[in-house]
Known about the structure:
binds N-carbamoyl-L-aspartate
Amino acid sequence: MKHLLGLESLDREEILSLLKKGKEYREWLDEVYEKRRQPLPHLKGRRICLLFYEPSTRTRHSFEIAGRLLEADVTSFSLAVSSVQKGESFKDTLLTLESMGFDLFVIRHSYSGACFYASNILRRASVVNAGDGMHEHPTQTLLDLLTIYRARNKVEGLRIAIVGDILHSRVARSAIFALNKLNWNIHICAPPTLLPKDVEKFNVKVFHRLEEAIKDVDVIYMLRIQRERQKEQFFPSLEEYSRLYRLTSQHLSLAPGAMVMHPGPVNRGVEMEGTVVDGGESFILDQVRNGVAIRMAILHSILGEEKR
Ligand code: NCD
């Protein structure tokens, strides 16, 4: 694998192979945290640049930790104090940093297609998509699948309800691409204004009522309202949205034993009640730790197996 730009272009076997590696890294990671074991030298001498043009806590830090646990040199690009503030273009920023010897760029950008563009501009370095606009967020879906795989011991043919701002969500798009390849039954649930116009082509079942969407699913996957991407008013008020679509502890009896997941950051009280975020069905913090493991697997697959 030279780049990871999205899950639309990966096949079932490639997804399953990354999950298998991620699972091994997760077991190793638990030992590191419990027994303070040393990093692995697989990526010693390789240089990784975290090029984030949008805010991030989980994705950026987990890539950073994943790279360091494989002994790569990891540099975090600081947008606010970079020459981007003096008007330097994305293209020139990429070529400048590549000339310094970076082998891989982890890129987050508000422009859908930024990672594909970067992979064409760069001459040698690899690109991993850490979220491009409203397009894809492949590593998020892979960590979510790893979380399900570990909890359920299977990752194919299950039922999921994805609830919330589907229209603006790159997480939902990557999930839908991958879950279709793994033969899932996909419910999506949102007010009509927060659904893509061409939603039928995604092979999903559309619901507008939360109670109907989550009935008997294996996974309830909640999304944040992406106010930073909304250029118009998509619903009357946040209170109204919340009244209809917030997941509460009462809802959980409609899907006994379902895993509750969220990519974070959670707006407590808006899309999910705080008690559900912290409750026994919530896998949110497990998702975060699996984020480190799956990103180790991805970095290793790209940089470790490449001819030096
Ligand atoms: C997501 C993102 O940035 O797309 N967050 C994340 O990476 N964990 C989802 C979101 O911001 O709501």
